[in-house]
Amino acid sequence: MSTRVQHALDQLKINGVRITPQRHAILTFLMESMGHPTADEIYRSLEPRFPNMSVATVYNNLKMFIEAGMVRELTYGDNSSRFDADVSNHYHVICEKCGKIKDFMYPSLEEVERKAEEMTGFRVRGHRMELYGVCNECQDH
User: Fold this and answer.
1) pLDDT, tens digit, for every residue of 88-97?
2) Residue 23, SS3?
3) Engineered SS bond to 17: which of 12, 22, 112, 125, CB 3.0-4.6 Å?
4) In a 3-state reduction of DSSP, which class is residue 93?
5) How many helices (H) and strands (E) does the chain have?
6) Whole-number mean pLDDT of the chain?
7) Which residues of 56-89 are buried (b: 16+ CB within 10 A; e: fewer)?
8) What is the rounded CA–CA span in Å between residue 30 and residue 43?
9) Helix, strand, coil distribution of the chain in percent, nearest 5
10) How far apart are CA 37 and CA 17, in angstroms?
């Protein structure tokens, strides 16, 4: 088990969350895949090991991980949220053909946040940036 997963499990225990085998598996899958899966993809991947687990169980656990600040929900208007266990400041580039999402790092846009606060009077709590294009695999077809 990775130290990231262990740290996340420890955080949940500190907050009084019981670590069920399903909860452990969902968190591990998210943290090790880093592939921005949908709840359905998580469910289908874990179902062979947990035949009694429902999609609702996956959703309920994802909601709890989001509230705990361990997972981000990415919504792109196509009705299928994707989930990201990397909660660091990073951005996404999305394939317009197959929907694959890749992370990329860029120096944080803190200056833009400061300017927005200055110009609007808002207290900015964060931002999201997405780039769209066509991935390598889709370019080859």
Assistant:
1) 888 889 888 9
2) helix
3) 12
4) strand
5) 6, 5
6) 88
7) ebbeebbebbeeeebbbebeeeeeebbbbbeeee
8) 11
9) 45, 15, 45
10) 23
* Number of C-beta neighbours around residue 26 at 10 A: 27
Structure tokens at 27: 């968190």
pLDDT tens for each residue of 54-86: 999 999 999 999 988 889 898 876 667 889 988
Distance of CA 103 to the CA centre of its chain: 11
27: CB partners within 8 A, 6+ apart: 5, 8, 9, 61, 65, 70, 85
Q: How far is CA 125 from the centre of its chain?
A: 18
Q: What is the pTM of this model?
A: 0.76
By C-alpha distance, which of 106, 110, 135 is closest to 124? 110
Higher pLDDT, 101 or 42: 42
